[in-house]
What we know:
The protein is an alpha+beta fold. The chain contains 2 helices and 9 strands. The protein has a domain at 7-86: CATH 2.40.50.140.
Amino acid sequence: xxxxRMIPHHGEAIVLRTWPFHEADLLxxxxxxxxxxxxxxxxxxxKSRKRFGGALEPATYVRAHYTERPRQDLVRMDSxxxxxxxxxxxxxxxxxxxxxxxxxxxxxxxxxxxPEDNVFRLSMAALKAMEAAVTASGREDRGKGAPPPSxxxxxxxxxxxxxxxxxxxxxxxxAPSVAAIDPAPxxxxxxxxxxxxxxxxxxxxxxP
Length: 208
């Protein structure tokens, strides 16, 4: 972090996780496009929604305004503007598990302050593809005059909206399995969704 002076930053970021911090503050982990993974304190975020609103939900794509402070490991989170929210489409079990996979892989596998533009773009593509799959599935169900599937009665594959599976025997919820991020220059993410079989390879490589 910076030494001796405050450095403001303004740029795209994905919210990965938040934790309570002191009485009314939140500790926030972001994947920023400029600096990679960054952690900081959002002052009074638990009491006032003026500066952050609903922008602190995990997997939210934001324009983050934050400031590096002298001799401090944690940045000061100033305000966020929502650019895309996962809450704009229905959030069911499968989509929740998928989003959890993405943010957990990013949080656990990426070092702090190591920008990876390919990883950032791939992560956003994965999150938006999940939203598109849910939206497409809902339109298809309404066209057939049937209610959207729930529980173990049926679901659509998150990466393949056209592939529909029926009456899958879901196990009780457990954290989704994830492979890791390959630290090589061409980064590969493996997103694994245990409940849904798919005919596609789960490894997706970001294009340059």
